[in-house]
Amino acid sequence: MMPSFRLRHFLLLFFFVVMGFFIAFPFGIVSHGKKLSYKTGEDVVPVNVAIVFGAGLTANDQPSDVLYDRLRVASELFHQGKVTTLLVSGDNRFEDHNEPEVMKKSLVDDFSVPEGAIVADYAGRRTYDTCIRAKTIWGVDRAVLVSQGFHLYRAIWTCEHMGIESSGISASLRPYIFGTQYKVREVLAIYKAFSDVYFLSPAYIGGEFIIDIDV
Q1: What whole-number distance in Å separates Cα of residue 10 and Cα of residue 4?
Q2: How many other C-beta atoms are found inside a 10 Å radius of the C-beta of residue 178?
Q3: pLDDT class for 17, splitting at 50, 70, 90?
Q4: Cα→Cα distances 209→119, 160, 163, 213, Å
Q5: Residue 71, Cβ neighbours under 10 Å: how many?
Q6: Which of 12, 50, 140, 205 could tie 134 with a disulfide, CB 3.0–4.6 Å?
Q7: What is the pLDDT of residues 79-88, one digit of tens each?
Q8: How far does CA 144 lie from the centroid of its chain?
Q9: CA-to-CA separations, 119 to 37, 87, 165, 186, in angstroms, rounded
Q10: DSSP 3-state of 2
Q11: Cβ contact 26:190 at 8 Å
């Protein structure tokens, strides 16, 4: 009887510890990310690289509202002299869906960023892929990450665990359609990030190609 009671007591305690972790983990990610995030470009401590995460394209192959705002904020950092290189990372698995190329074109055409200041990562399928590739392929050690609040904090946590000293700036410039759904999805994505960092491998790595600046 006593061993059985102790086992049940241990299992119950273990259950509550695990549940406590899963409840507290997202709050910890958000709290940590907020401490490392800037609200305006003027506040950003200069670094050489800004990482811009893909966020989907419209039916006519243009940046989504979410992505357009990320590009806008990234371009402002460049023109303010806060960064010298914009690393744009997105999905390019399909012939008719080339996020990095659209991002690059928008930065040049819409925001007057010189093409030579843009580095495109064509295999940033997930936040984790973008972070680990930025570190292992592009040789990025420090970066400011450009995204919206619902994704920015997770990106900071993920890139930090890939060995990149990370800060962030919010590109939340307006209310977004499906904004609530994004926030709900982000809670689940935080758990996925934990799994990615500690248990899984990136979808694709590729060879090393160090950005030709002091990163």
Answers
A1: 10
A2: 10
A3: confident
A4: 11, 20, 17, 12
A5: 25
A6: 140
A7: 999 999 999 9
A8: 10
A9: 23, 5, 19, 27
A10: helix
A11: yes
- Taking 90 as the threshold, does the pLDDT of residue 184 lie above it? no
Token pair 């809670």: residue: 187
Tokens found for residue 175: 């209310």
CB distance 155 to 149 below 8 Å: no
> 22: which 2 tokens?
């899963």
Q: Which two tokens stand for residue 75?
A: 């371009």
Q: What is the DSSP letter of 46?
A: P
Output the CATH code of domain 30-198.
3.40.50.620
Q: Are 127 and 33 in contact (CB under 8 A)?
A: no
**Phi/psi at 13 (5° precision):** -65, -40
What pLDDT score was predicted for residue 215?
44
In sequence order, what are the beta bridge partners of 144? 50, 167
